[in-house]
Amino acid sequence: MPTRWIDQGAHEAIEIVEVPNRYLAGITEVALKDHIGDKTNWRTMLKNEVVDENLVEWRNKLRQYIPEEAAEYFIESNSETNLEFPVLRYPEKVKSLNLSKTPNFEGVLKGIKGQYLIFEDDTVFNVRGSEGYFVGMDIK
Predict the structure, then answer these.
(1) Cβ contact 2:83 at 8 Å
(2) Which of 114, 107, 96 is nearest to 2 (CA)?
(3) Which of 15, 20, 97, 121 is least surrounded by CB atoms within 10 angstroms?
(4) Measured at the alpha carbon of residue 36, what is the angle toward residues 32 and 41, in degrees to the nearest 5?
(5) Which residue ranges make up each domain of the chain?
(6) pTM for the predicted model, two decimal places
(7) Residues near 111 by Cβ (< 8 Å), separated by ≥ 6?
């Protein structure tokens, strides 16, 4: 299960290397970050303004930047994974719910993407960003 991809709200992903330890994963990630961005604007992701990329092509372009120690772990013959989220309606203008400012909120849940709950009025709730809060929900 691609848990990290789901948590990040990715709509597509591909493995580039499969390494036996965290050290090789780390040096590979550091080497590749100079050639490809690893951050997505969370508002763009929640509006579902996605660009379909040819990830097999990207994987092959990035091969030359993999550190020598990890080169043997390059995955040559996989395809991209497409992820779909249970969203009935994406927000047009994202409004973030801040529990410090709004301790009580009522809304109709329209979807879940990554670590966000999406409500009918374009309010989004970052579940991970609200760790430490006790949140109760009533379902009607």
Answers:
(1) yes
(2) 114
(3) 20
(4) 130
(5) 3-82, 95-129
(6) 0.85
(7) 85, 86, 87, 88, 89, 90, 117, 118
